[in-house]
DNA sequence: TATTGTTATACTCTATAACTATA
DNA sequence: TATAGTTATAGAGTATAACAATA
């Protein structure tokens, strides 16, 4: 009997390891667990980092546009916006020209905290991509982007 | 006013698009939605394709090893195994040498159906990676693997 | 009539804690 | 005492359907 614990990868057959879809899923699980463990003191914001960045880049975005951008139903976004508003990250203001719309903005405090959070996200990203050459990173980014395009294009043509 | 709808990507700032962690998350969401829409008639198996492949490669694996391999708590695995057993994919047999353990196997029917499911997974993967050169694919796979290694290694050293 | 945001509701997925049976 | 599997339970996260306000 060997004292070495069997590694997880030993159980994963090669053809599964070669599947990009499997790797993506596995990475998302791992990265998310790690991210949540490492980043604290930012309330519930870390998991919505991407969304906060989109709001920062599109101040006053309507909730429905925001929901579409992150592939969520507009109703699913409501409690998220509410929580982040209570935590001081966001404010909603009714749109003057269309009073159905509520525009979403980062607060000054939210902007300030987002820049601090960004430092942590950078660290996380650096740890995750350690050992990858700039060239590999570039190819990786292109590949990930191409796949996202492929998947969204197919969604449009499918047109349920 | 232009008739063209604003694309999602127009809302995503470049620095966010360049984040591998953001892309991974986005891709996982898109790929999963697409996968579930396209693949039907396989019961609840498609979402557990990876797990079924691991069982196929490790016949008689103990539930706890399987849970570790897919980063789930052993208790979370129980209802999954149960469902797939009821659907005829799996059987559990008590281990002779350690009666606490229940060994998990694919049924003959499960093996047969898994090979059919695999055809669909291949199609999904091909659509997703369309336009990527063999070289890009190779670099992509290496990058994804390296990141998985980075994340699991860091988990071990953190050692909470 | 259609759209935006909201609410009520239900479903899925997951972890934690406690239990059981074995070791 | 520790481990494998199970159960009960609770907490996220999500979508669907229906509603109010507005266009």
UniProtKB/TrEMBL annotation, chains A, B:
The keyword Transcription regulation applies. It holds the Pfam family MarR. GO terms for molecular function: DNA binding; DNA-binding transcription factor activity. Coiled coil: none annotated. Residues 17-149 form the HTH marR-type domain. The keyword Lipid biosynthesis does not apply. Keywords: DNA-binding, Transcription, Transcription regulation. Gene3D superfamilies: Winged helix-like DNA-binding domain superfamily/Winged helix DNA-binding domain. PANTHER family: TRANSCRIPTIONAL REGULATOR, MARR, TRANSCRIPTIONAL REPRESSOR OF EMRAB OPERON. This is Transcriptional regulator HosA. It comes from Pseudosulfitobacter pseudonitzschiae.
